């Protein structure tokens, strides 16, 4: 389980990128606040749509399943194609 002291793969990828929350949010098409909460899931417990996760992974040039694996564990829910309809 995630805790406040452990950075997720998503947070590490974001920190290693040149993006700001505002710029990544603009590219993905979400608010800066929502972007921040997705990246800091261990604090905010925000669900994320499959399409949004895919856009974030693409922007960060990362594999989506690896980048969001900890989100799936955190919510105890595996995202399926059914969830995108």
Notable characteristics:
mainly alpha, 434 Repressor (Amino-terminal Domain), disordered C terminus, Lambda_DNA-bd_dom_sf, globular, Helix-turn-helix transcriptional regulator
Could you explain the architecture of this structure?
The chain is mainly α and 85 residues long. The chain has one domain (9-84): lambda repressor-like DNA-binding domains (434 Repressor (Amino-terminal Domain), Orthogonal Bundle), CATH 1.10.260.40. Helix content is 59%, strand content 0%. The protein has 7 helices and no strands. The longest helix has 11 residues, at 50-60. The model is unreliable at 80-85 (pLDDT under 50).
C-alpha Rg, in Å?
Answer: 12 Å
Helix-residue proportion: 55-70%
* CATH level-1 class: Mainly Alpha
- Largest sheet features: none
Distance between the termini: 28 Å
Structural class computed from helices and strand pairing: mainly alpha
CATH superfamily, called what?
Answer: lambda repressor-like DNA-binding domains
What's the total count of β strands? 0
Average pLDDT metric: 82
Beta-strand portion reads under 5%
CATH topology: 434 Repressor (Amino-terminal Domain)
CATH architecture: Orthogonal Bundle
InterPro entries: Cro/C1-type_HTH (IPR001387), Lambda_DNA-bd_dom_sf (IPR010982)
Protein name: Helix-turn-helix transcriptional regulator
Organism: Bacillus bruguierae
Pfam families: HTH_3
Question: What would a concise description of this structure say?
Answer:
This protein has 7 helices and no strands. The protein is mostly helical and 85 residues long. It has a single domain, classed as Orthogonal Bundle (434 Repressor (Amino-terminal Domain)), CATH 1.10.260.40.
């Amino acid at each position: 389980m995630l805790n406040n002291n452990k950075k997720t793969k998503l947070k590490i990828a974001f920190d290693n990128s040149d993006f700001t929350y505002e710029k990544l949010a603009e590219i993905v098409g979400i608010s800066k606040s929502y972007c921040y909460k997705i990246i800091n899931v261990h604090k905010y417990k925000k669900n994320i749509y499959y399409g949004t996760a895919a856009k974030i992974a693409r922007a960060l040039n990362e594999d989506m399943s690896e980048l969001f694996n900890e989100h799936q564990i955190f919510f105890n829910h595996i995202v399926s194609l059914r969830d995108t309809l």
